[in-house]
Amino acid sequence: MSRPGLAKLLKANAHHGAIPGFKRNLLLREFMPSVGFTFATMSRAALDFNVFGEAYLYRKPNAFGQVLEMEHLPAINMRVKIGGGFVQLLASGKEVEFDQDEVEHILNYDVEQNIYGVPDYLGGLQALLLNEAATLFRRRYYSNGAHAGYIFYTNDPDLSEDDENELRAQISASKGVGNFRSLFVNIPGGSEKAIQIIPVGDFQAKDELEKVKNITRNDIIAAWRMNPALAGIIPENNAGFGDIEKIDRVYTSNEIRPICQLFNQVNDSLRADRRINWRDVEAEPKE
């Protein structure tokens, strides 16, 4: 999967763009920062994990070789080297190489390979792209100015050219806000059916936009395994979605804390590393 492509998709849909940040916030709620692993570092790593399915942390050493702190490495620029180790691609075109034991690689396992992590929402990408296409279609529909607000039709053979130009100017000047433009047509002696508008397809009249947006939105939320009550969805009935606090507790227990267990590999690897002085990495109390 293209990392830049996955990053750009965050701007394609409101729900898809907001959910990874929301899940990041829930992870931060469970996180206890320390001297060696700060709140800001966890925030960046958690967002990377939700978007790309993996996160990279550099085990920054001090002068004595002890792990001083965990430093975030942007996943979008990280690659796994053949034979072990990692490489960071810089914007300047240069590369920074890391040994295998210098980087903590937290990944969401993929059944097809065990080199890179993958996000869980990949099954909803087609729905995401369809949702974006429907929105862009509607935007272009309003922006192109080709659709009419109304047609001012006359069939008066005695209407002078000056009067016709004046009417056309008045209608053009009063088109109002937006792109709904009105048309003036004069056909001397014409019948009432001299002008007919036969649309090839009316996206608005058939409510196709709302159907497409709602269906694809549900698919996107399902791909993220996000509860509608937590995704900012307006309930369609008076009963709503139920007790939001219970929903939050269940969602945190079933979805967020298992991800926390993946990040706990940082604690496990540092405890196993004899070089670290844990007296300098005391966890702050959780509020």
Oligomer: single chain
Mean pLDDT: 83
CATH architecture of the domain at 3-119 and 253-280, by name, is 3-Layer(aba) Sandwich
CATH topology of the domain at 3-119 and 253-280: Cytidine Deaminase, domain 2
Number of helices: 8
Strand order, sheet with most strands: 2-1-6
What is the H/E string? HHHEEEEEEHEHEHHH
Instruction: Provide the β-strand percentage band.
Output: 15-25%
CATH class (first level) name of the domain at 3-119 and 253-280: Alpha Beta
Estimated radius of gyration: 29 Å
Shape: elongated
Structural class: alpha+beta
The total of beta strands comes to 8
First-to-last CA distance: 39 Å
Largest sheet: 3 strands, antiparallel
Helicity level, as a percent range?
25-40%
Low-confidence stretches: 276-287
Kindly list the characteristics that best describe this protein.
single chain, 287 residues, alpha+beta, Cytidine Deaminase, domain 2, three-stranded antiparallel β-sheet, 8 helices, 39% helix, elongated, disordered C terminus
Layout: helices, strands, pairs:
Blueprint lengths: L2 H6 L5 H17 L8 H14 L1 E8 L5 E7 L4 E3 L5 E4 L5 E4 L4 E5 L17 H19 L4 E7 L6 H13 L7 E6 L21 H16 L20 H20 L1 H8 L15
Parallel strand pairs: 7-8
Antiparallel strand pairs: 1-2, 1-6, 3-4, 4-5
Helix pairs in contact: 2-3, 2-7, 4-6
Explain what this protein looks like in three dimensions.
The protein has 287 residues and is of the alpha+beta class. It has a domain at 3-119 and 253-280: Cytidine Deaminase, domain 2, CATH 3.40.140. The chain has helices spanning 3-8, 14-30, 39-52, 125-143, 161-173, 208-223, 244-263, 265-272; strands spanning 54-61, 67-73, 78-80, 86-89, 95-98, 103-107, 148-154, 181-186. Helix 2 crosses helix 3 (39-52) and helix 4 packs antiparallel against helix 6 (208-223). The longest helix is centred in the C-terminal third of the chain and has 20 residues, at 244-263. It starts with a helix and ends in a 15-residue tail after the last helix.
